């Protein structure tokens, strides 16, 4: 125990002394004439901060989780080409996506970057690979692409994960043989036409209609009305040659529900095919490197073989054939590729938050503001407890989100049909949680950088516009979180009915007795994983019981289950968060357990305590439902402030462990005095 | 009392029935084959919603507060010119600032819009006018300009409020005579060089140095090092001819602190003056219509008369003369024009939130998603209680912010020296509160619009980038809120020391006995202004007492007051919010009191209760410090949900009362099916 804070108290004392020296300077002369200050100079935080007490490379391994060599190779590849807009600031080179350019220019450069990556073998085995290793390499490289530019990652993601993924998941051998290799080589450029003007999250309600013409052996795809136009289709406006079309399938006048078809929309010269109309979605607040478009189909005919027939097929003479009788299950099968989308969103949201934090924290270690005494030196902004409170809890949460998104990747890569429910629920929860966390982190980081956060080249502010889309695409976050609560409700009801123990979704803790929270929390209790786990589990368990009771009450009053869910949205939201936070904590504890004792494990313990305690502080549910007494809540709040001081000396090492090359951060993270010097302007 | 909810219960019952009919459709067939839906069509909410039960024009008067005719005139003026980019969508015309253009193009069109407004007399008497009426007209017209485009408002604001305001406030007759008329006519174009690369919020630390040369009767302005370059100077990069320069003034080797000087930076042909260097601040995440620049002064000489000498002067032979001996007070006098900035920020943040809400709420009254039964119709998204909870509390808060910003305008316009402290504290609190509220509202509205919120032409998402700057310029919001708490602390200490009653900053309630909150809240209690006021006052009072006690405790332990403030930042933040919320509530009650009884007053009561109760629900301080028991907090939460249902039928009327012409909202607020029709694309 003595070692567990690795003499962090000493460093805190040191910090406190530095700060109080600033603030309590001897013989202050409050009304004395202000003296001129010596000019500011920039000191790299590497020189001014203490050296790391843990192994940054080891921490980076844990953070990135897999394929570090591949990641570094791709970072290097991007740094070697002028296509990635290298700019020089303060003696360093930074790469940056485009801005101050029209959407047309941004789209073209994004496509050229894809050709460059293709030529250099980045996409090898992305669709033709087999096994976990190929899949993990793909996910790692997509992470890296996204660190450079979200538009580039999305443009690639649509082609490989949505178009390619649909062919893999919904198609059968004939589709795999015909399309996967050509997709991997960009001989065809694919897009994914699911969303329509009138229907987004509610895919089941789409209005595109497909019928079968047995006389020619063709499907006939039609956009029957304006609200059925395909909308937000990434790649459609300029580049895609082919698309997956989601459509109601009508056979013999009967609607068999949503199915997926392959249709060509452009020829090899980029001309739009007959009976297809395409329009632009226009300028967006971010992601302008992606050419989102709208598509209308006017009785477009495609061969019968273009139905992606893993779930259902139509025979040449027009019989509807399926092994899955239940249309709900059939429909669910068609949403599977969206899961891969949620997996990649969780990872990319986390990396985006890392860029914001690495930039804002490095800046806060070099920027001073206000002196506490008339002639005293100005204080480093990260030495203000309030600034620590703004950034360090988000840093701890970002560590937690890293472990969560790595876990999600792993269960996704190693998926079996038995894990479908878990993957659906966890990916929904983590997609929503990480994307909300990212937006919040970027906003705080942008404000923490002051005006510099608004300067596009400093990245932090720019990322807000680029990543905003994540909270609503691949499933609106609120809708996803409702699905989480509904799934938990389902587990609860089925466990109670069958009188069998809980055994999925991490709910096994509900089989134990209800955790008891000490009436008087102490610092050492609060930092124990046991306490943290107990109170997170207590919250989830209690909210699930309350939610189930309220829904059952409504049902007993004759209301439908859906209506009961709708009415109890407040509890549902609290419960969704409780599930997600508890699941995230478990991934953190798992990561911690993988490390042998020592400084790395110790710092992880501190970071995890910050994650857990700041969650207790911020979610009013702990007070509202009485999991924390007001006395205990006040202890938690004090402890968060203590943890801020304890993490402060490690802030630089903790962001260095993100493994982001300097060139991918905003220039404000480095020598911003030199970067802004007149002489730099003249180069 | 019977009338007070104007039979709102009937409407709630109606809504509830509609919703439950959707959700509980007779004989649902859960696993039946999905039928194709009829195509979607758009119904204007004016047709589908009940007509307003209150007078929308009267409500708009209350919202805008002043100069309605002038406002409508300027809206019309903008609609008459192609300079404001009229676009046609769904049979309606919308005006829009530029996007998908380079910053250079955006800056030029912004300047051309200014010429147009100038020619049409918009700026008449903005600087040469006298009295409240001219000042209120100016503020109203600036509101309207900002509703079109924040860049245009800021570009105008810098010229009139910062450059012009500095001459008015710091200058004397010779400056007024020489510059005000020419400024009003744009014969000169002014900017305001306060911020430097190294110093933003901490103006006192700026490094620009000015000396006096008595041999020529000139001041010599110098940028001694790179961190002293002027930074973020709106207008400097391209258009400004003159600037106010803030600089340390050194007389006989002694630093007299920050003073303001007039310097020319460009000649009438736009050529940069000798000894001045100017560079661009580059692309920003918003406000690219404003040409922010950086300025270096290389021993720039300006006549002695160019010192703005209302506070201090230098005699021809180089003697420093001032009536204000205390350099702190002298410094404070120089920050006065920033107050006008905070007044206009509060107003424009509120109007921005109105644009977001009017757009998102109108869309939510025409967009449907998910049917609760397999073949049932889809539900209007504002009929989901969860969607109501997302938007309607923000709507109520926006009403509150309107009253607050109108109040702030009024005390600013009618200011007397005795009101300086109040204006400083209230403008700091309201600037921070409204700008945070705006960003939060825009984010929620953008998500509530789904993907459409990301489409730049729909405005909601675009406004986020444009208004983000407000939380850090004219004083970082966190720093401003700290100042509020410090001012409250000062009042507290002085009242206790002098044993005199509180009589400023709205703290008079502290002279009364401590309010008592009923142990069992009921719906009717919670809706009483008395209760709402009591609990807001209780929170402010208790937090001020706690804060004062903690700071005193630190002081008794030998810590400086500043250090004590720094350590107690959590309480300081809670207290700042408590002050601001209570002050906002008071402005709401004042506005309500100005209305005679009837439907308008009734609806205002509902909106105010929503504002008060959602504040109780969202700020965990009420639970943390025990102002609300967990039982009472749970009652409050239920009541917020009830208020959502009760406000739902009035949502359309409440946003219509904002008085924003259709053309200034996003097209998604109107016929979005037709706006996206292929035929529209071909026009």
List keywords for this structure.
15 strands; alpha+beta; homodimer; 3-stranded antiparallel sheet; 52% helix
The SS-based structural class of chain A is alpha+beta
Largest interface: A-B, 124 and 124 residues
Query: What share of residues are in beta strands of chain A?
Result: 5-15%
Assign an overall shape of chain A. Answer: globular
Question: What is the makeup of the main sheet of chain A?
Answer: 6 strands, mixed
User: What count of helical segments of chain A does DSSP give?
Assistant: 24
Distance between the termini of chain A: 56 Å
Q: What value does the average pLDDT of chain A take?
A: 93
In total, the number of strands of chain A is: 15
Quaternary organization:
homodimer
Query: Low-confidence stretches of chain A at least 5 residues in length (pLDDT < 50)?
Result: 1-37
Rg calculated over all Cα atoms of chain A: 27 Å
Estimate the helix proportion of chain A, in percent.
Answer: 40-55%
């Amino acid at each position: 125990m003595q070692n567990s804070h690795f003499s962090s108290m000493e460093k805190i004392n040191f910090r406190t002394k530095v700060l109080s020296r600033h603030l309590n300077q001897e013989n202050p002369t409050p009304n004395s004439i202000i003296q001129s200050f010596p000019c500011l100079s920039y000191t790299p935080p590497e020189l001014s901060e203490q050296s790391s007490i843990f192994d940054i490379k080891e921490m980076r391994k844990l953070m990135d989780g897999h394929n570090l060599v591949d990641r570094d190779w791709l970072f290097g590849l991007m740094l070697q080409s002028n296509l990635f807009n290298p700019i020089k600031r303060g003696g360093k080179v930074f790469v940056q996506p485009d801005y101050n350019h029209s959407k047309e220019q941004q789209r073209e450069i994004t496509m050229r970057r894809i050709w460059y990556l293709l030529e250099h073998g980045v996409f090898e085995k992305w669709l033709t690979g087999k096994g976990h290793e190929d899949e993990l390499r793909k996910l790692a490289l997509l992470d890296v692409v996204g660190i450079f530019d979200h538009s580039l990652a999305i443009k690639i993601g649509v082609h490989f994960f949505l178009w390619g993924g649909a062919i893999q998941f919904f198609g059968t051998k004939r589709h795999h043989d015909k399309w996967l290799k050509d997709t991997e080589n960009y001989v065809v450029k694919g897009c994914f036409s699911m969303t329509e003007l009138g229907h987004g999250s509610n895919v089941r309600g789409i209005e595109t209609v497909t019928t079968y013409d047995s006389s020619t052996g063709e499907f006939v795809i039609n956009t029957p009305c304006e609200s059925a136009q395909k909308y937000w289709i990434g790649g459609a406006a300029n580049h895609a040659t082919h698309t997956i079309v989601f459509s109601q399938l009508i056979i013999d006048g009967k609607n068999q529900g949503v199915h997926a078809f392959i249709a060509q929309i452009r020829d090899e010269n980029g001309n739009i095919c007959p009976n297809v109309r395409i329009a632009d979605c226009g300028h967006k607040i971010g992601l302008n490197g992606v050419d989102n478009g709208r598509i209308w189909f006017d009785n477009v005919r495609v061969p019968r073989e273009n139905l992606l027939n893993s779930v259902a097929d139509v025979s040449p003479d027009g019989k509807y054939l399926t092994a899955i009788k239940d249309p709900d299950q059939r429909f669910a099968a068609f949403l599977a590729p969206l899961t891969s989308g949620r997996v990649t969103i969780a990872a990319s949201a986390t990396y985006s938050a890392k860029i914001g934090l690495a930039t804002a924290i490095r800046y806060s270690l070099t920027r001073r503001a206000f002196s506490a005494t008339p002639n005293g030196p100005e204080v480093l902004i990260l030495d203000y407890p309030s600034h620590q409170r703004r950034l360090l809890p988000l840093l701890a949460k970002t560590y937690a989100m890293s472990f969560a998104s790595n876990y999600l990747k792993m269960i996704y890569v190693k998926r079996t049909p038995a894990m479908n429910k878990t993957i659906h629920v966890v990916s929904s929860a983590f997609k929503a949680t990480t994307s909300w966390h990212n937006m919040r982190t970027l906003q705080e980081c942008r404000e923490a950088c002051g005006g510099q956060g608004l300067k596009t080249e400093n990245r932090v502010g720019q990322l807000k516009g680029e990543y905003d889309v994540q909270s609503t695409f691949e499933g609106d976050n609120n809708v996803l979180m409702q699905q989480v609560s509904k799934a938990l409700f389902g587990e609860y009801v089925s466990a109670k009915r069958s009188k069998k123990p809980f055994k999925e979704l991490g709910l096994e803790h509900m089989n134990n007795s209800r955790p008891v929270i000490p009436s008087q929390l102490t610092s050492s209790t609060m930092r124990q994983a046991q306490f943290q786990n107990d109170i997170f589990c207590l919250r989830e368990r209690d909210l699930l019981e309350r939610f189930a009771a309220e829904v059952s009450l409504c049902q007993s009053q004759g209301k439908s289950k859906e209506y009961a869910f709708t009415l109890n949205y407040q509890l549902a939201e609290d419960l969704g968060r409780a599930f997600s936070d508890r699941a995230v904590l478990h991934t953190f504890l798992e990561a911690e357990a993988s490390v042998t004792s020592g400084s790395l494990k110790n710092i992880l313990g501190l970071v995890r305590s910050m994650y857990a305690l700041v969650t207790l502080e911020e979610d009013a549910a702990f007070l509202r439902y009485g999991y924390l007494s007001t006395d205990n809540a006040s202890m938690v709040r004090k402890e968060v402030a203590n943890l801020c001081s304890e993490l402060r000396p490690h802030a630089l090492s903790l962001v260095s462990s993100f493994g982001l090359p300097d060139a991918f951060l905003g220039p404000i993270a480095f020598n911003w005095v030199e970067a802004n010097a007149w002489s730099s302007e003249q180069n």
